[in-house]
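Figure 2 data, in text form.
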Amino acid sequence: MKIEEYIEQYNSNGGYIKTLRQHIGHAPIITIGVGVVIENSKGEILLQKRKDNGKWAIIGGGMEIGESFEDAIRREAKEETGIALGELTLMAICNGQDRFITYPNVDIVYSSSIIFKTQTYDGKIVNDPEEVMEHKFFSRDNLPEEINDFDRLFIEIWLTNPDQVVIYNGKIGEE
């Protein structure tokens, strides 16, 4: 089979990770995550309240096979918020021992993440009824307490390193 045929097969089955999970169950897998910090004109960050755990997170998700980092985050943003992202800049590359996620359904992933930042987008923000309870902009000094554990790092990087790309391998400041 050609790679295009595999990709089509995965897409028709709900995506690469969903297809993989049918074969290995909840066992740990390696994934590549993408995320984006979206700032409004007041410098506030857009967060979404996740349906799976009720906690606040940045917009993002997992890459599908054959996608670029940029294509993946643009797709995720459209799916989760209904908006089209404008110009993206790289904010962080993150991996390390603390990058394991156990989801509420007990799937386990080790996720290396590419995080972007943008101040431009088009469209009206809407909630993906399957994944998101609500979206809200927060100022730097008024962030919610219930932040998704995995996303806390990305928000900390946004707060402390606004003008540089961070390479995170377990500790901020270590490259």
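Caption note: The radius of gyration is 16 Å.
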